[in-house]
Please model this.
Amino acid sequence: MSMFCFQCQETAKGTGCEIRGVCGKVEDLAKLQDLLIYTLKGISEVVIKGKLEVKNLKKANHQVMKSMFMTITNANFDESAFEKQIEIMLSIRDELRATTSGIDFHDAAVFEVKSRESMLEKAPYIGVLATENEDLRSLQQMIIYGLKGMSAYTEHALNIGKENTDISAFIYEALAATLDDTLSVDDFVALTLKTGEYGVKAMALLDEANTSKYGNPEITEVNIGVRNKPAILISGHDLKDLEQLLDQTKDTGVDVYTHSEMLPANSYPFFKKYDNLVGNYGNAWWKQLEEFKTFKGPIVFSTNCIVPPKSEEIRNRIFTTNAAGYPGCVYIEADEYGKKDYSQVIALAKTLPAPEEIETGSIVAGFAHNQVLALADKVVDAVKSGAIKKFFVMGGCDGRMPYRKYYTEFAQSIPKDTVILTAGCAKYRYNKLGLGDIGGIPRVLDAGQCNDSYSIVLIALKLQEVFGLDDINKLPIVYNIAWYEQKAVIVLLSLLYLGVKNIHLGPSLPGFLSPNVAKVLIEKFGISGIGTVDDDVKIFA
Ligand code: FSO
Ligand code: SF4
Model:
């Protein structure tokens, strides 16, 4: 076995990528990512055992977030970026350790590597499989994956100037715990729920950052057609990047389109002032290779999900920033104030043709919590009158595997008196089906990005309050969630922490769940997989 990774839904055979990642991650990249995580565990132990004041560790806190984010599925394929990040983190670790004394540290807090070769030599001993007990391994990895998702969300919030050092303190606590061999399976089950608790805090922080800066999303018809001007496509989740790109393209004759998880940006009042924000181009992340060919212009990846571009022509048009990276593509660095210079992207756009039309018309977005709560009376009346019988929470991720057509067929097959609440790129499986409305309430209410699952939780809590229910699980809501990568893991753990039961998780249960851990999730939380569309529609109806 040359590598081992089982962090995403598309993991080979549902058990683990051992030769090369289905996502395109190769052996050396996998090793460098493992070593980076190991280094973060070491830093965490120094912080925890050394009782360091997390509030004073801004540089470490931010770099830990970035490092975690870099290792999310298909965020960063650039081995040199990982080598550099490991060096940065080792120097932070050593600086912090130098402030402590008389403490006996784990190898992760003291090991040294001097070169890429020594990094690659060290890696096979510290990866996922180094934890021999499969239940401990399963729980520890689930926690680490949750922390990766959490770090992604807190990094976006930080880019808008909001942070909560309690979340960083928890990240240290949880990562350090994975080095502590005195902890039991029960301890890690408790830590898993605590990860969900901090997941809620992270999503709330990002929601606050986004809405305080960009306003509350509002119902918006988002154009999915094109105009006849050169343009830049911006993908990923980072709204600050979109803001800077729009500021810099204003009056240049270059248009901007959102892609994939950036679609919800069109619903924020702040972004409506930009005439050159045309709308959304294309679909979920996995269709990008096809859609980048017809888009023609430059593409900015503000985060994952990158599909390795096969052609040099497309690689030359891809720019990355934040935690994202791809070898051979230009990386746009922020200056010390977080400002980025997109001039080379804009200059390239001017030399390229306008996007080719692949769709026409519009889709409706913007049903985040504030907007839905503004319609609360209407929604409650529709439920009381029986016009709406049930809500299906179908948020999460999309993916490239053909079996994901389940979600399209499921959305088409559920009764017409039901409403889908969605967030994340899973929406692309059913947001263009024209599923109609119920008394003016669209049957697909799109709350936004995967992190806006927080909005769905707020909506559920509001409905619970309005209907005077003592348990969120008594609401007429069914959870049929799709997952792909680690942001979905933190969303799931957050829902479990909030007491949501009987979540159906598909298209397959995570490969990182050991049989015993899966049993705990099934028995304690009623988690289950999915079946056929026909069977599930009957079960859920
Ligand atoms: Fe999707 Fe990718 Fe948002 Fe993820 S674009 S899969 S869970 O990164 O983050 O929903
Ligand atoms: Fe495999 Fe997913 Fe890991 Fe990529 S991220 S190596 S596809 S398990």
